[in-house]
TrEMBL record:
Belongs to the NAD(P)-dependent epimerase/dehydratase family. GDP-mannose 4,6-dehydratase subfamily. The gene is gmd. This is GDP-mannose 4,6-dehydratase. Its EC number is 4.2.1.47. It comes from the Bacteria. Catalyzes the conversion of GDP-D-mannose to GDP-4-dehydro-6-deoxy-D-mannose. GO terms for molecular function: GDP-mannose 4,6-dehydratase activity. It is an enzyme of class 4 (lyase).
Length: 340
């Protein structure tokens, strides 16, 4: 039975990837952080699934930057495939927590690569990189694997460090390391402080009759939003190739935050009109004029990537992968899930 090791198994991508690998017959080992509050809700259904059985999903306590224990764990498991997904992934928070962001997204990759040098050389590694490496792509639209990096926040800087290390260890030590440069990918399992989840949760509450108001920052932020379960399929495909390489994972289409919000409200039958500008901007219900969304300075970042759009042509040609769900369909899927 093939063994996979997932860091970040309790996160959005980790939980979907665990489902995928278990369905393919893998034994899945996951790294979990000890915390006083229980944080495994995204994988609980797998732990009680009788088809998975006790031996096929194994969780290990650990910390990415507790180097010796992490090293020991990798050697004990001896996985055929490692998916490194863990790390502080909130871009806005990375301005407030730059050190932890760089330790978890940058230095942890180095520790992992160093441990891998001593593992069986056939072990394959997927590194979760991000469109935030492009930050300000200076007219390069869409961005692909050859677009120069220009990160605009500590998170993007850490991901550049991680990605470049992955390439260096591939070239200089012959390790099988793939960088997946993933653009935004969302789902009902998205963390509650990412914009699509904030919107879908808020729209569902408002449709249910709550007098809620969604507070957001930059409504002009333009992102290439795809559906997370489709992206974990691409991660797996990368590690099944004959040769390790880097791939952009994206839909190739963008929407603004404002458009995503309008689509979410439309999906729950609450059409809205946006009025005003900047921090004065609000969205009002068309039927009774009530404010349902307002812009708040609290959620603006010191600098925000204006528009990020990926070119997934290489992933399509070489992995046979194509994102299917995006835009209004994604917004509708997410609000429907909130409504249960
Ligand atoms: O949902 P977001 O926080 O995602 P962001 O910053 O694009 O980063 C996500 O995608 C990256 C690419 O895959 C990942 F690398 C990263 O780890 C993360 O998963 O913000 C999206 C846009 C931005 O323009 C932001 O300024 O939404 C804007 N926004 C407006 N109001 C908001 C809010 N973002 C958040 N989180 N919260 C708001 O209230």
């Amino acid at each position: 039975m093939k063994k996979a090791f997932i860091t970040g198994i309790t996160g959005q991508d980790g939980s979907y990837l665990a489902e995928l690998l278990l369905a393919k017959g893998y034994a899945v080992h996951g790294l979990v952080r000890r915390a006083s509050a229980y944080n495994r809700s995204r994988i609980d259904h797998l732990r009680t699934d009788e088809n998975v059985g006790s031996g096929r999903l194994v969780l290990h306590y650990g910390e990415l930057n507790d180097v010796t224990s992490f090293h020991r764990l990798l050697h004990k498991i001896e996985p055929a495939e490692i998916y490194h997904l863990a790390g502080q992934s909130h871009v806005g928070l990375s301005f407030e927590l730059p050190e932890v962001t760089c330790l978890e997204n940058g230095m942890a990759t180095l520790h992992l690569l160093e441990s891998m040098r001593e593992l069986d050389t056939s072990t394959r590694l997927y590194l979760a990189q991000s469109s935030e490496i492009f930050g300000a792509p200076e007219g390069e639209d869409p961005q692909d694997e050859t677009t120069p990096v220009a990160p605009r926040n500590p998170y993007g800087c850490a991901k550049v460090f991680s990605m470049q290390l992955g390439k260096v260890y591939r070239e200089s030590h012959g390790l099988f390391v793939c960088n997946g440069i993933a653009f935004n990918h969302e789902s009902p399992r998205r963390g509650e402080n990412f914009v699509t989840r904030k919107i879908s949760m808020g729209a569902a509450r408002i449709a249910a009759g709550d007098e809620a108001v969604i507070e957001l920052g930059n409504l002009d932020g333009r992102r290439d939003w795809g559906y997370a379960p489709e992206y974990v399929e691409a991660m797996w495909r990368m590690l099944q190739q004959d040769r390790a390489d880097d791939f952009v994972l994206a839909t190739g289409r963008t929407h603004t935050v404002r458009e995503f919000a309008a689509a979410a409200f439309a999906a729950v039958g609450v059409p809205v009109d946006f009025q005003g500008q900047g921090v004065e901007e609000v969205a009002r219900r068309r039927d009774n004029g009530a404010i349902v969304l307002r812009v708040s300075p609290r959620y603006f970042r010191p600098v925000d990537a204006v528009s990020l759009r990926g070119n997934p042509a290489k992933a399509k040609a070489e992995l046979g992968w194509k994102a299917q769900t995006q835009g209004a369909d994604l917004a509708a899927l997410m609000v429907e899930a909130e409504r249960g």
